[in-house]
Each structure stands twice: as structure tokens, then as C-alpha cells.
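User: Can you recover a sequence for this backbone? Please restate the input before giving your answer.

Assistant: Of course. Working from this structure:
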């Protein structure tokens, strides 16, 4: 039994390396209630001003964080650029149902983090396709009393195994990213 316990983890790790399973498509949803009507919130969803420097500890470890969002055009086919500390996400709009739903695919993603290293120009393999966002969505729901529930959702895959272990970290990071954006939109909309 002891030999089995010692050999099982390396065997599983080697099996995943030799024949890696297809990474699962995972969704993370985060929501916030805003004391403003959906029409006001919508303006800050499609494009928002610079966020303040992050206070969250996770973003001081090199993990990429959102900085601002810009949009070129309006309606389906418009291009939204959500700029992160490591570069832009390019997000072609697929659904523009103002002021209820903004849904987009992700055609370009920046590195998920800046590697801490004393060396220049190092690019570790784990930065490529470690965590790849596939699509996103903002859903605005009118609340009784005139407020709005804003939900942000991200569909992603990651290619680091064991998947269950890394999914917990990926979900945690994506929730923090969502909260950073949603709270910024809440402040902007409630100030308007």
C-alpha cells in the first residue's frame, strides 16, 4: 500500500505529460449590484476609464490586471480592447443587446503574468497558453427600485496539469479580475 501511495502521483503526472487530456472549457461568473439604471451602467461596460493602481495583493505578485477598456465602433463587429498590465485582450463583439447583454469572443490575449526574474528577455514556457480566455460576457439585469445587477463571465481553458489544482487558482485570479472591473464600473455608474 505504501508503494502504491508513493508511485501513484508520479504515474498520474507522467500519464498527463505523455497523453495530455483536452483542457476543459471553464466559466467563472462574478456579479455586483449597482445603484444606477442599466442604461447608465451600459456606458461604462463597453468602455471604461483607467482603473486605479491595484490594492489587491495578488496583483503585486506579477499577475496581469486590467487597466482600462476602449471600444472601436458599436454593435456586433465592434472591437473592444481590454488593456491589461501585460497588454491588450482583443475582443470582437458578437452580441450587442443594449442595455442588457454584451458578449464577445477573445482573439488575442496577453501574457497572464510578468515573470519575476533577474534575467532580461526571459520567456518561460508556462506563459504561453497557460490560461487562455476564449470568450466573455457582461449581463445587466434591471433590479426593483431602478438598480442593476451586473454579471461578468469569462470562459477559459488552461493547459497546466493537474487541472483541478490549477483551476482553483485560475478561478480565484479571474474572480479578482472581475471584481476589480465590476467595482470600477459600479463607482463610475453611481457617480454619474
Amino acid at each position: 500500500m505504501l508503494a502504491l501511495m508513493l508511485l501513484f502521483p508520479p504515474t498520474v503526472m507522467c500519464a498527463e505529460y505523455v497523453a495530455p487530456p483536452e483542457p476543459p472549457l471553464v466559466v467563472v461568473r462574478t456579479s455586483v449590484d449597482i445603484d444606477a439604471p442599466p442604461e447608465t451602467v451600459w456606458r461604462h461596460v463597453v468602455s471604461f476609464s483607467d482603473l486605479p493602481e491595484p490594492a489587491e495583493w495578488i496583483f503585486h505578485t506579477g499577475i496581469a490586471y486590467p487597466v482600462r477598456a476602449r471600444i472601436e465602433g458599436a454593435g456586433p463587429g465592434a472591437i473592444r480592447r481590454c488593456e491589461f498590465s501585460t497588454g491588450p485582450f482583443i475582443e470582437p463583439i458578437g452580441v450587442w443587446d443594449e442595455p442588457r447583454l454584451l458578449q464577445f469572443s477573445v482573439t488575442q490575449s496577453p501574457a497572464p503574468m510578468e515573470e519575476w526574474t533577474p534575467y532580461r528577455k526571459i520567456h518561460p514556457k508556462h506563459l504561453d497558453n497557460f490560461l487562455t480566455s476564449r470568450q466573455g460576457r457582461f449581463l445587466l439585469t434591471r433590479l426593483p427600485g431602478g438598480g442593476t445587477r451586473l454579471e461578468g463571465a469569462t470562459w477559459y481553458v488552461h493547459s497546466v496539469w493537474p487541472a483541478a489544482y490549477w483551476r482553483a487558482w485560475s478561478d480565484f485570479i479571474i474572480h479578482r479580475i472581475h471584481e476589480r472591473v465590476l467595482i470600477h464600473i459600479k463607482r463610475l455608474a453611481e457617480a454619474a
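That completes the design. The two ends are 65 Å apart (CA to CA).
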